[in-house]
Amino acid sequence: MLYKDEITLASVSTKRDKAGFPEADVQLTEVFADCTSAKRREFYEALRAGVAMEITCRVRSIDYGRQKYVRWEGMWYRIVRAYRVEDWTELSCEEIKSLKKWMTEADADADHQ
Fold first, then answer.
1. Using the 8-state DSSP alphabet, how is residue 38 labeled?
2. Fewest Cβ atoms nearer than 10 Å: which of 21, 26, 32, 105?
3. CA 84, 1, 56, 107 torsion: positive or negative?
């Protein structure tokens, strides 16, 4: 593995501001990965389940901390599946089409942590 692509892993949690109101706390981590388009079979199998699988990123397992989002080449993706094999983890990702959808998902994830 060359791990030639730079990606940003993002996790969202909730913290309280000074007035006690909840606010999203986004943690960004930049790591190296190997990113490719989703394989044909994986893409169509996911599509049958209602998920538009776009990319697969392979990262070192030590770099992956169960984050839920990936930014690669200026686009945001939601991690749909993480598959770990020894020292690497494969992240199957779906593109987030709109910022509003992403923020809604991020807020929901933060509320459930």
1. P
2. 21
3. positive
